[in-house]
Amino acid sequence: MDLGSLQLYVKSAFDEAAASYGRALEIATEIDDQEACGDCLTRLGEVYLAEGRLEDAERELRTAAGMWRTFADDMTNQLIQRRRVYTVNTCDDIDRVQFFDDHADTYISLTRTLLAADDAAKSGLGALFAAEDGRAVTMRELLSLGATDLLAEEAAANASDLLAEDGGEPPAVPLRTAAPALCEAEELTTLLGRLFPTGEGVVLFYMLVEEPLLGAPAEGPPPPPKRGCAIWVLSANGDVRVVKTDAAAVEGKRGVGELVQDLFVKMAVAADGSLARGEVRSEEAVAQYRDHLTSSGVELPEEGAPEVDTELQALAAVLLDPIAELIPAGVPVCVVAHAELHLVPFAALPTPSGEPLGVAHPLSYAPSLTALKLLLDREEGSAAARASSSRLVVGGPSAAAGLELPPFPGAAAEAERVAACVGAEAEELLLGPAAKLDTVLERLKDSPVGLLHLAAASCAKWVALTPAEPPAAEGEFALGEQPPEPAEAEGKGEGLLVNDDLHLTWLPAHPTVVLSGNSCAYGDLSDDWVLGLPRTFLISGARSVVSALWEADDEASASLMTAWYSVLRESPETTQAEALRAAMKTVREEEGGKWRHPYFWAGYTLMGAAAGI
Asked: Strand 202-211 and strand 226-235: pairing?
């Protein structure tokens, strides 16, 4: 705990804390440490916020946020330069992700300040734009930037070199500013009109807010901060309402994070009784999951999936019930989640009608409002390219023996049915041994693919395709041949499609990507969304991604995917969200409700706002 925090949170000495941070700011300014300046301004803003000096808090926090935008501009130009040097037209920017994760507290504190100042208005529009400014900053930049035109960059560089050789002044390298966040009421109204052309629908924008408690002990760990949740309900007609709820302990002693964790543990136990498309959990791992639940007082059935209504109802009490009256029956719902809320299966949360949200409403997700706008731009601008694009449907690859994966008959059957639904040519369907990683990557790079469907074993970090060739045993290399690097042996040698493959692959036809295996929507949490395969596909040009939060039962997933594509084939103008709603309803009712448990259908999420296939 630094001196300023000690004075603020232990002694509640506002003047002393402000003075300490003021001195630190002077030192940072003298040595020209801009990042330290931004941190000091953030801490000053938090002191003023705790003291109730809202105008002073807003001033300091907005100044800090402005400094972070300057850093973002620099990072954008560095990113373009890296692409040019390494001759790649697309790549991620993990350094920027980490930077804005480190400074997310600036935007959270600014949002808290504006919510406190705007309490009477009940719209919280200024606070919404502050939260949006810090949300998915890297994603909005990469979506906005798209693929770098390396030929144009090279031509500009060559022209500059020629002028220098002739003794002329080379033109200044154009400096680019980072993509701005949506920040005007008119922009928001336009976005909502585009997203909901029928005039019906809502966006639910969430933000978890931590409020440190004053009076902390001088020694030992500080008390946990008070947690709250701000929910903005953005209606299709442009109306904005904000509701604040307490997210600290919503069921017994469990907060939102604990509820999500226990929910996923229960889904893992449910997967033990089904053929799920991924690695088989050991008996020891399953026993640990069961022990965790029973030690918490949960009664588990000897067979079958454990009940999850307790967790779902508790989550709904915080995330849906306070805003239920603001969501008209049956309208499309788009969720912009935050922090661990990215892992909440909103589709399974009960609504006042008794139906789960994903059955009562067409449901989709977006990393941020600005990212949603950019995905809509992509959707509208790529219609012509998709019309002449190919399909690529992959099912039941022959995974490397070292992965010890069982066969998944439903995946292969699913791929054949999907190919028939979308009218794929014979060469556009890759099954079993033909579903090679190298073949998939070559198709994606060499031809405009408008739909990519991968029915294969997967996890949060990879999709298992057929290896190009079995990995060579130690010592079995041809004369002059070098053994593969460890990363290559563990990735391409085993046929694993991973983020690194996709970061360097641009998808010009902006396809819909479907990942119907285990847990692809799961991953490391960040303020830039979940750092996993769906995010990478969107960065690489996809217009929408369907993937699962947890294990995908082989048979139930095949049924859900078949139903989803059938709706889109019969009604080409139907939104993908409406088709997913219909597919979930079909699976829940199939054969007398044998798949009614949320494990079988509620894990699937749709990122983006696409229509048709």
From this structure: antiparallel
Give residue-wise pLDDT tens across range 554-574: 999 999 999 999 999 999 989
Q: 496-517 burial string, b = 16+ CB within 10 Å, else e? A: bbbbebbbebbbbbbbbbbbbb
SS (H, E, C) 282-304: CHHHHHHHHHHHHHCCCCCCCCC
Q: Is 394 helix (H, G, I), strand (E, B) or coil?
A: strand
| Res 173: pLDDT | 52
**Mean pLDDT score of the chain, rounded to an integer?**
88
Return the bridge partners of 546, or none: 514, 606
244 close to 228: Cβ distance less than 8 angstroms? yes
> What is the rounded distance in angstroms from the CA atom of residue 106 to the CA atom of residue 60?
10
* 48-52, 237-241, 295-299, 366-370: the lowest-pLDDT one: 295-299
Instruction: Provide the 3-class DSSP secondary structure of residue 120.
Output: coil
State the average pLDDT over residues 42-50. Answer: 93
Q: How far apart are CA 246 and CA 444, in angstroms?
A: 46
Q: Which long-range contacts (CB under 8 A, 24 or more apart) does 61-65 make?
A: 61/106, 61/109, 61/110, 61/113, 62/110, 64/38, 64/39, 64/103, 64/106, 65/106, 65/107, 65/110, 65/130, 65/133, 65/134
Q: For 307-330, how does the pLDDT look when each residue is reduced to its tens digit (9 = 90+)? A: 999 999 999 999 999 999 999 999
Structural contact between residues 17 and 47, judged by C-beta atoms closer than 8 angstroms: yes
DSSP 500-535: HHHHT---TT--EEEE-SSSTT--B--TTS-BSHHH
Judge contact between 83 and 90, C-beta under 8 A. Answer: yes
Report the C-alpha gap between 270 and 77 in whole angstroms.
48
What would the two tokens of residue 492 be?
């391409």
What is the distance between the alpha carbons of residues 245 and 229, in angstroms, rounded to a whole number?
5
The rounded distance, in Å, linking the Cα atoms of 298 and 577 is 34
The mean-pLDDT minimum among 25-34, 132-141, 294-303, 476-485 falls in: 476-485
Distance CA 574, CA 577 (A): 8
Among 451, 360, 77, smallest CA distance to 443 is for 451
Query: Quick check: 339 and 208 in contact, CB under 8 A?
Result: yes
Alpha-carbon dihedral of residues 453, 455, 456, 461, nearest 10 degrees? 50
CA nearest 437: which of 388, 397, 401?
397
Got the DSSP string for 337-349?
A: --GGGGGS-GGGS
Rounded (5°) CA angle 524-527-528: 80
Q: pTM for the complete prediction? A: 0.91
Between CA 167 and CA 422 the distance in angstroms is 59
- Which DSSP state fits 45? H
Question: Rounded to the nearest 10 degrees, how much is the dihedral formed by the CA atoms of 600, 601, 603, 608?
Answer: 160
